[in-house]
Design goal:
By secondary structure, this protein is α+β, with helices and mostly antiparallel strands. The protein has helices spanning 27-34, 52-61, 93-101, 131-164; strands spanning 64-66, 69-71, 83-86, 89-92, 110-113, 126-129. The protein folds into 3 domains: 9-42, no CATH class; 50-129, Homing Intron 3 (I-Ppo) Encoded Endonuclease, Chain A (Alpha-Beta Complex), CATH 3.90.75.20; 131-169. A hairpin with a 2-residue loop joins β1 (64-66) and β2 (69-71).
């Protein structure tokens, strides 16, 4: 015999109208709990009619603190850059924050993340550079990471040789 379907239950998180999945939460809030994050609204909707300065403050207030970085908490593209709709066009969050908090940005310059985190919108981590400087720094960072990885592999090999050696046992 089939059970009657009861009323659809919604997520227990305040103001979340998504359907209840399990444990009283929708899949998005359940994912936050599983990751050990503090439960927060799944999608922050920016109030309308804010000035550019108010928009930048709104974004910084909602950024997630990771180390010294302020990570953009809304939509990110596949490369990790924060994006949002501004005046009917998509804008990059880090460029917008730079222009509001640091100074005007020449179109010929790119905004470089000194921290290497493409989602970071901390104005202290942003720097206007040429595309050539940006690529050179990225390659230096990549080369440094490769060197660190090579040293880690070398250290692991040494540890294995020491463990296998009979003179240290």
């Amino acid at each position: 015999m089939r059970r009657k379907a009861g009323p659809a239950r919604t997520c227990e998180f305040p103001d979340c109208m998504n359907l209840h999945d399990s444990l009283g939460l929708c899949s998005g809030h359940r994912r936050q709990r599983r990751r050990g994050e503090e439960l927060r609204s799944l999608r922050e909707v920016r109030p309308r009619n804010l000035s550019d300065e108010e928009i930048s403050n709104w974004m910084l207030d909602r950024a997630v603190v990771v180390g010294e970085c302020l990570v953009y908490s809304n939509y990110k593209d596949k490369r990790g850059y924060g994006r949002f709709n501004h005046a009917g066009k998509y804008a990059l969050a880090h460029r917008f924050i730079y222009a509001q908090k640091v100074g005007p940005l020449d179109d010929a310059l790119v905004v470089h993340h000194k921290c290497g985190n493409s989602s970071c919108i901390n104005p202290k981590h942003l720097q206007a550079v040429t595309q050539l400087e940006n690529v050179a720094e990225m390659l230096d960072r990549t080369n440094m990471l490769r060197q660190i990885e090579a040293q880690s592999v070398y250290i692991e090999r040494l540890k294995a040789r020491i463990a296998a050696s009979s003179c240290y046992q």
